[in-house]
Specification:
Layout (H helix, E strand, L loop, with lengths): L1 E5 L4 H9 L4 E5 L10 H10 L6 E6 L4 H10 L4 E4 L5 H10 L5 E7 L5 H13 L5 E6 L14 H7 L8 E3 L8 H8 L3 E4 L4 E3 L2 E2 L1 H13 L1
Parallel strand pairs: 1-2, 1-8, 2-3, 3-4, 4-5, 5-6, 6-7, 7-8
Antiparallel strand pairs: 9-10
């Protein structure tokens, strides 16, 4: 099970999470987020885990193509996560500029089905580039993620087209207490958490991170 711990803010935390066995670390470049970091800090994190077998995921929310490309030139990212209102046309242009970086497209779901995702993927096909992964998070009118709200597992399980759509990464309110249940209910490719393993906003708890990763592996 691919496991991403998002919102890493410093090199020490990055080393701790990587050593505990996370598959990926999320680096947040969205300025309004309490988990946002600078490019300089991201570089320090990349250096700190360079010997670990862990992927670095850059999280962007409505950034320009130029901003994303510049950050990627300065930081050795392994994947890009688009968590805003990025269009299929934007994905296609980004893939042209950064063809070697897989794209995760995040969706905040509040509907009773997943028709908006189906429509988005159809538009992606017309533009010539689908996301390499889809991430489904809970909807919040006040934030683009990291709210701790639980995504609608039953809706995802019923309507996600697992054989036709990109691999699914489940996010939204996942904690050590509910991650095994979430995996059993949805059967995703991977899971993603930020606030679910924090002792305070933006502060990762080693105990919670270890418990989350262990329970994910067992599930």
């Amino acid at each position: 099970m691919w496991t991403k711990i998002c919102g890493i803010r410093d090199a020490e935390t990055a080393r701790m999470v990587a050593d505990l066995g996370a598959s990926a670390l999320g680096l947040n470049f969205y300025a309004p987020s309490p988990r946002c970091i600078s490019v300089e800090t991201a570089g320090e994190i990349a250096a700190a885990v360079s010997k670990n077998d862990v992927a670095l995921v850059g999280l962007f929310v409505n950034h320009s193509l130029e901003d994303i490309e510049t950050i990627c030139q300065d930081v050795s990212l392994d994947l890009l996560q688009l968590h805003g209102d990025e269009s299929p046309e934007f994905l296609a242009k980004l893939a042209e500029r950064l063809p070697n970086l897989p794209l995760i497209r995040a969706f905040r779901v509040r509907e009773a089905n997943l028709e908006s995702i189906a429509a988005y993927l159809s538009d992606c096909d017309r533009c010539g580039k689908r996301p390499d992964y889809l991430l489904i998070d809970a909807y919040s009118p006040d934030a683009f993620g990291g709210t701790g709200k639980v995504a609608p597992w039953a809706v995802i399980q019923e309507y996600y087209q697992f054989t036709e759509w990109p691999p699914l990464i489940l996010a939204g309110g996942l904690t050590p207490e509910n991650v095994a249940e979430a995996i059993a209910a949805v059967q995703p490719f991977g899971v993603d958490t930020a606030s679910g393993v924090e002792s305070a906003p933006g502060i990762k708890s080693e105990e919670l991170v270890a418990s989350f990763i262990n329970r994910t592996k067992k599930a």
